[in-house]
Amino acid sequence: MKITAKAPANIAFIKYWGKKDEKLRLPANGSISMNLSEVFTTTTVEFDNKLKNDTVKIDGRYVKDREKLRVVNHLERIRKIAKVKKRARVESKNNFPRGTGIASSASGFAALTLAASKAAGLNLSEKELSVLARMGSGSACRSIPDGFVEWKIGNTSGSSYAHSLHPANYWSVCDVVAIVGEKKKEVSSTRGHTIANSSPFYKTRISGMREKVSGLKKALKNKDFTKFGEIVEEDAINMHAVMMTSSPPLFYWSPETIELSLEVKSWRHKGIECYFTIDAGPNMHIICKERDVLRINRKLKNVKAVRRVIINKSAIGVRVV
Ligand code: DP6
Q1: Distance of CA 6 to CAs 39, 93, 162, 307, Å?
Q2: Using a CB cutoff of 8 Å and minimum separation of 24, what contacts does 150-158 make?
Q3: What is the C-alpha separation between 262 and 246, in angstroms, rounded?
Q4: Which residues does the chain have with pLDDT short of 70?
Q5: Contact 180, 283 (CB under 8 A)
């Protein structure tokens, strides 16, 4: 069977940084995210008797080495569960630049998990899909359920998965992504996770996470945008402080990232309530209310460093298309 699935990227409001079990991809802390409506991966998988090896095409190009191996390893997990021996043809397309901090591994592994498991004849539950997607890339488990999502740490593989806190239409929060760089990052987040605990601030970060997660959940429940935005911005800066003080230090920010963070702060002081968050890349996610999106977009047009803007609402999770 040939199956196509589409999965959104997600933006973490509370970030996942550091693992307590690398092999199983169990995170050191819980995280919370929102699926993005305009950045997604569409993946088609077909198992074929005639194939000698798996083939993996991403954005029109056959990938090899490490990039291919990660996909093949994921197919292996699915073949094992489905007791299928056939090799697969995988074709995946992103509608945004890969490896620049817009969570392509999240949407990529979420789409691959659903397409490959269905193509192998499995009919997995949302929880099972989320567990499986997590093994491919941690943040991918959050692109399985709809809307606003929580990934609980869990102690075993089966108990570390994401679930929906609120549906996509719960709150009209937007993520305006300002793209300032499309160059692939030098250090992958997978590598970054492994050195997180070399930062002297890492322990402090982790020790405050439980409280932060419950604070953000409460702000979401009360639709308290100010509290929500303050926690989101603080957690991004906190994570990047850990990254920058790791050994070796990881700087995902570029001068444009700092320039934009100061802009966001000044817009806020002028009455446009918005907050920023940044993943493992230089691009800026500006979190705002829907009514301010156009004003922010106009302001971004005046910032020279911004090459492209993508306006996202909250979205549903992975689906077969
Ligand atoms: C900074 O999910 O890409 O985007 O599990 O090794 O694939 P792996 O890491 P990944 O890490 C994402 C890190 C982040 C924060 C987040 O999305 O929570």
Answers
A1: 10, 10, 18, 26
A2: 150/30, 150/31, 150/32, 150/213, 150/217, 151/16, 151/27, 151/30, 151/31, 151/32, 151/33, 152/30, 153/20, 153/26, 153/27, 153/28, 153/29, 153/30, 154/26, 155/26, 157/24, 157/26, 157/131, 158/131
A3: 24
A4: 97-103
A5: yes
Q: What is the pLDDT of residue 100?
A: 57
What is the model's pLDDT at position 98?
65
Q: State the distance from the centre of ligand 1 to the C-alpha of 85, rounded, in angstroms.
A: 30
- Residue of 205, 284, 149 lying closest to 28 (CA atoms): 205
Give the position, in ligand 1's atom list, of the atom nearest the Cα of 25. 5
Question: How far does the centroid of ligand 1 lie from the alpha carbon of residue 95, in Å?
Answer: 19
pLDDT of residue 181: 79
Relative to beta strand 87-94, strand 55-58 is: parallel
DSSP string, 245-280: TSSS------HHHHHHHHHHHHHHHTT--EEEE--S
Q: Whose CA is nearest to atom 5 of ligand 1?
A: 138
**How many alpha carbons fall within 13 Å on the CB side of residue 226?**
3
Q: 189 alpha carbon to ligand 1 midpoint, in Å?
A: 6
The answer to pTM > 0.85 is yes
Indicate if ligand 1 lies below 6 Å from the C-beta of 232: no
In this prediction, residue 101 carries a pLDDT of 59
**pLDDT for 54:** 98
Question: Which of these, 15, 10, 6, 8, lies nearest to 189 by C-alpha position?
Answer: 15
For position 184, what pLDDT does the model report?
72
Structure tokens at 26: 């169990």
